[in-house]
Amino acid sequence: MSGQQTWLTQEAADRLAAELAQLEGPGRKDVTAKIEAARAEGDLKENGGYHAARDEQGKMEARIRQLKQMLENAHIGTPPASADGKVGAGMVVTAVIAGDETKFLLGSREISSGDLDVYSEKSPLGAAVLGADIGATVKYTAPNGREISVEIKSAEFF
């Protein structure tokens, strides 16, 4: 993931920075307190609370690394207008997929406000539409092995 650039709105960047600050401050203190309390109970081999707290700590540290990397490589603001008529990251794509019209965001879940489905550029659907011309029909292979046709109707920046 290193070096991957992500377009973020100022609102999304602020939201992620607040989450990072919470995890690095109060979040770390809380999980450390849980580990210490469980450690005080005695035998660590059979201490479920201790192992659960350590797992929570590992997940939290992974999220902290993810947020730091994302914010370091983020471009804050509005992506440049696409004059080339192609689908790009950070765009809301309207497409007909297997006969049904749908809208989705191509990019990271972190930039979404939650009201749209989000597909990574690395997902089968995302890879198929990334760089495709508006009006084109592309195909991709779903995880179940079925080939799915996608007609791109429009794409505009989120």
From TrEMBL:
The keyword Transport does not apply. Coiled coil: none annotated. This is Transcription elongation factor GreA. Residues 7-76 form the Transcription elongation factor GreA/GreB N-terminal domain. Belongs to the GreA/GreB family. PANTHER family: TRANSCRIPTION ELONGATION FACTOR GREA (PTHR30437:SF4). PROSITE patterns: GREAB_1. GO terms for biological process: DNA-templated transcription elongation; regulation of DNA-templated transcription elongation. GO terms for molecular function: DNA binding; RNA polymerase binding. Residues 84-156 form the Transcription elongation factor GreA/GreB C-terminal domain. Transmembrane segments: none annotated. InterPro entries: GreA/GreB_C_sf (IPR036953), TF_GreA/GreB_CS (IPR018151), Tscrpt_elong_fac_GreA/B (IPR028624), Tscrpt_elong_fac_GreA/B_C (IPR001437), Tscrpt_elong_fac_GreA/B_fam (IPR023459), Tscrpt_elong_fac_GreA/B_N (IPR022691), Tscrpt_elong_fac_GreA/B_N_sf (IPR036805). Keywords: DNA-binding, Transcription, Transcription regulation.
